[in-house]
Write the structure tokens for this entry.
Amino acid sequence: MTVMEIPTVSSARSAAAPLASAQHHLAEAARFLSLDEGLHQLLATPRRSLTVSVPVRREDGRIDVIEGYRVQHNLSRGPAKGGVRFHPGTDLDEVTALAMGLTWTCALTGLPYGGAKGGVAVDPAGLTERELERLTRRYTHEIQPLVGRDMPFPTTGPDLAEAVALGVRVLLGPGDGRTVAVHGSGGVANAVTATLAATGFVLHGTASTTALTADADVLVLTEGGVTAHNATGVRARTVVEAANGPVTPAADQILAGKGCVVVPDLLANAGGAIASHSEWGLGDLGSRLREHLEPAYRAVRALSRDKGLTLRQAAHVIAVGRVADACRSRSV
């Protein structure tokens, strides 16, 4: 089956919602792998989901009740692993999509985990340090039904922004004078910019608003931004997803039609997961990232070339296939 034979999603909601996008990519892989409907539905459904009400006492004495979430997507390849997102716009659907993505990332890069994710619907910038500590402690207490000794939380180090940046460097190789534009702001954007500049890439400006349309060889996305409305303006020949799902399915089709290669988040955003797994391992972080990312990228690229798939489709086919095999070996 070639890329043109895989069904696509065209609805506006599918193009915008993280969970709909995640389900779309899974459906593509399931169709390619000829998974039966029951197994497809098993992979599309979280193993466990929890919504909690988290009271937090503010400094002025009042109590706010904030909604929190924890999702374990799949446990067939190992205990569920994933961090917690504090953001006012997060909800159960987004957390589910992120947990699903971590399942595929771990499978693709050879990590012995399933995917999990937590979320708290709050802006941490609006909390004092003491309020944030109270909130985090209470949230952790409330999700205890899904947390046990064999369900690891993310570790505190190494710095995950640095790990993502180093992962991007591994995938892109030496700069050799190539130009790169970085879309986004914050820790990951800063780390990617510094890392690539030190590796021989030539930075193309610094304004996030112009990065999407920069006339650069490589565009690195550290936050969302490429949709069907602006994909035609992307001029870079390679787009790297250093964030979760910054390119919508509809934009994927447009970029593929233009001959643009998208290095998907399952690979390009995997540095944090790999680093948190291997921080106690021997050797420097860069070598440990290469140990996981280089064989994964070679497998994805080979399947892409052999079957006429995009890198994203090939990555999902490999990852979903590995998780499906694990489910079968456990008799579902």
Summary: Residues 1-16 have pLDDT under 50 and may be disordered. The CA atoms of residues 300 and 315 lie 5 Å apart.
